[in-house]
Amino acid sequence: MIRVRSVVPLEGHRLRVTFSDGTERVMDVERFLRGPVFEPVKRDRALFEAVAVDEDLGTVVWPNGADIDPDVLYGRYEPAWWEEEQAEGAKRAG
Fold first, then answer.
1. Calpha distance 21→26 (Å, rounded)
2. Which of 5, 13, 19, 29 has the most CB atoms at less than 10 Å from its CB?
3. What are the tens digits of pLDDT across the range 34-81?
4. Is the separation of the CB atoms in 70 and 7 below 8 Å?
5. What pLDDT score does 18 carry?
6. pTM score of the predicted model
7. Cβ atoms 27, 73 nearer than 8 A
8. 92: pLDDT strictly greater than 60
9. Dihedral, CA atoms, 4, 9, 12, 14, nearest 10 degrees?
10. Which residue stretches of 13-79 are H helix?
């Protein structure tokens, strides 16, 4: 099970994330900052920079309760809203 070990905020909406398997990635997480809990993180630079690792969840979190699944960060899965949008698009096209 992959978990986040450390996170460092960078310019824009990029994070340097180190995972439990030693993999380190620099990623732009702006596309994940969607929905009511993420809007403040997206708009407020100070809040974005307050990102931390929740040791129990093994992922990145912000003080307002926002978090991103470690499997999404690692690239194993897309966020739930992405899958829902893809299904809706397929219904409209089909």
1. 15
2. 29
3. 999 999 999 999 999 999 999 999 999 999 999 999 999 998 766 665
4. no
5. 98
6. 0.82
7. yes
8. yes
9. -20
10. 39-43, 45-49, 70-74
Give the residue among 35, 37, 40, 67 at the shortest CA–CA distance from 51. Answer: 67
Through-space distance between the first and last CA atoms of the chain, rounded to whole angstroms = 37
Superfamily of domain 4-93: NE0471-like N-terminal domain (3.30.2020.10)
Q: In what order do the strands lie in the sheet with 67-68?
A: 52-54, 59-61, 67-68
Are residues 16 and 8 in contact, defined by beta-carbon separation less than 8 angstroms? yes
User: Coil, helix or strand for 92?
Assistant: helix
Contact 66, 38 (CB under 8 A): yes
